[in-house]
């Protein structure tokens, strides 16, 4: 299985093996935006951690779900705008003439 095809549960299991998640150090979640038949993008989302980190954490993220018309090119952008110990911001958008109905992102933050 390629690393890029792993879902968040597998990634959490792998990191748990080295004690980060099980020790309560990492946090994870998802951001889902969906509005069919409209294209609600671009969207900026601020995610607040359940427990603030002592320092700025490393944030990893990936696309979990994408919904677009079957007869058009699909281009999506996800960008990490900033990271602070208590929260971070993502920008989810489409590129050029792409209409996106939905876009989902999974994330994990670790010290």
From TrEMBL:
InterPro entries: H-type_lectin_dom_sf, H-type_lectin_domain. The gene is LOC111126635. It comes from the Eukaryota. This is Uncharacterized protein LOC111126635. Residues 46-109 form the H-type lectin domain. Keywords: Signal. The lineage of its organism: Eukaryota, Metazoa, Spiralia, Lophotrochozoa, Mollusca. GO terms for molecular function: carbohydrate binding. The keyword Acetylation does not apply. Residues 1-23 form the signal peptide. It holds the Pfam family H_lectin. The keyword tRNA-binding does not apply. One of its GO terms (biological process) is cell adhesion.
């Amino acid at each position: 299985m390629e690393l890029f095809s792993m879902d968040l549960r597998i990634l959490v299991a792998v990191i748990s093996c080295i004690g980060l998640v099980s020790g309560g150090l990492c946090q994870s979640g998802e951001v889902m935006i969906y509005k069919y038949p409209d294209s609600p993008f671009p969207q900026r989302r601020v995610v607040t951690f359940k427990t603030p980190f002592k320092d700025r954490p490393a944030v990893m993220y990936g696309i979990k779900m994408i919904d677009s018309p079957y007869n058009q090119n699909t281009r999506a952008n996800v960008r990490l705008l900033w990271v602070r110990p208590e929260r971070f911001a993502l920008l989810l958008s489409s590129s050029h003439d792409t209409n996106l109905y939905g876009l989902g992102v999974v994330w994990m933050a670790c010290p």
